[in-house]
Amino acid sequence: MEIETEEDKKWELRLYVAGNTPKSVTALSNLKKYCEEHLKGQYRIEVIDLLVQPQLAEGDQILAIPTLVRKVPEPIRKIIGDLSNEEKVLVGLNIRPA
Amino acid sequence: MSDTKKNTSIAYPALPKTPTGIAGLDEITEGGLPTGRPTLICGQAGCGKTLMSIEFIVRGAMKFNEPGVFVAFEEKSDELAMNVASLGFDLKKLQEDKKIRIDHVHIDRSEIEETGEYDLEGLFIRLGYAIDSIGAKRVVLDTLENLFSGLNNQAVLRAEIRRLFHWLKEKGVTAIITGERGDGNALTRQGLEEYVSDCVILLDHRVINQISTRRLRIIKYRGTVHGTNEYPFLIDEDGISVLPVTSLKLAKQVSTERVPTGIPALDEMLGGKGFYKGGSTLVSGTAGTGKTSISAYFANETCNRGKRCVYFAMEESPNQIIRNMRSIGADLQKHVDSGLLLFNASRPNMYGLEMHLVAIHKIIKKFKPQVVIMDPITNFINIGSVSEVKNMLVRLIDFLQDEQVSVMFTALSLNTIVNEQTDEGVSSLVDSWLLVRDIEFNGERNRGLYVMKARGMKHSNQVREFVISDEGLNLIDVYLGPEGVLTGSARKQQMLLEQTGEAIQAHSIGRKDREIARKRKVLEAKIASLNSEYESVEEELNKVYLEDELKKQILETNREEITNIRRGGIAQAKTTGGK
Which residues of chain A make contact with B118, given a CB cutoff of 8 A? Predict the structure, then answer.
């Protein structure tokens, strides 16, 4: 049930990176892959480079890089790391029940 | 000394230091924390880590015009502001003025999922942004422990914290990192921060005999000398004050100025002038011998001369002392009103010995008295062993000497045998020692005062009777009679006896004089009668002699007459015969 209601909504994802580091690149490509597979057409990814906009780090309480923040649907969830473990990412984003 | 110091500093430039602005800490560290390097402050919960670090930031902003960033991992900015408002720190205002910046870093394990490789570049960027936005020179991270509770990957965290310390150094900010104490003897939970910090300060909060004392110790400080002892510190309405107490240099300035005691006869015993300025005096004696009275008179005299005096009362309340002293002719209230006399009453077991010392220091630094009275020091024994109390008093005397403050301690002695007295072991430390003793004799108790010692001055070796009356305190020479030392009514009695003796003697002398006079009169009378007897005998003898002469004359006349008659002259014979 939960999955279905959430699937109706749009997924707003924000990925925080710091420059073009290998970890950031891996994270972004992983994220895109999972979203295409599971949330096709319902998601939006915003990539924020903290080297360019450092003032944004405080708002989302960013410590680690890369950090993926699920803004919508609520509640806010954060996944840190290069998102190499698909299972964990899907559970973390509540795309798949734990 | 100062020359050699200068030379070395020219040859090897000293490590630059950033003053913390925390009272006493800069003295222990000889200037402050290492500039541009990270310092770790560690300790258990509630030992004052956060407070010390926030004071570092606030004092930096207010006193030294160095803006600072406070990264709070535990408390929110509002909570923090509220917590330190009691110390008079207005964090909101400072933040508005861009003097400080508080960044609350929130880590919630339940919100965070970890997958794959990551680093803490986000924290670095945040910190870097905060530092650059106000041009911060000081940074506090309170406390890194929370990173470990929020994130799982220990290897990454350890590597990143190491990198953070290097990064802070590169940034050139003077940083404080706080850390919770680990299990056992470990300084921090991770056993990491202490190795990468250039300076480690350990805070401690210990409870001994139900009395808690905060202590601070500098464990390491790269590239500089520093005090290595444990220093007690106090948190009060002025923030943190650390006390660098154990300066054991015996190189004090001394004064030859004298301070009168307020009891002229006692001054007389002390070479006629009283104590030395900056000297320490111990008044000891059994209960009720007038120790407090002596010290109150000293305080009174000091204030009468227009000097300041602090009276640390540990047994009686100020009002009680004022009332009691009024009864013996010392008006202390007047001096309290004029602001010359400050009473500080506290029970010794209010806090630990060290805290007392810190509190005393603070008051003396603030009030700048010429005379300090501590009445009595005996009660300190409740909160520490004899050696601890002695230690504390050594440091107190040391400090007071430094400040050129004269001090009078009173101590209650429980036994009356002088040689066995310990007096908290200070009798050997003080410059002069007055002993008030009970002299029990003839069914009454009197007080005797001795000057046991008085360094550097001529002093009386005699016992004086110490009399407390409505007019005040006085010392009277005790009476040395044939039966020994007499005091009190026995002294008076003996004096009366002597007066009687004198009167009687005077009387008897008069009687003897009169007898002599009478004897002389009798003799003189006798002499007179003998004289008259002699006169009459002489007269008698003269009479015979005259008669003979007369007879002879008459006979001769007669013969001439007869001759004349024979020659025929009758008339002539008649004239001569009629004679």
Answer: 23, 64-67, 80-82
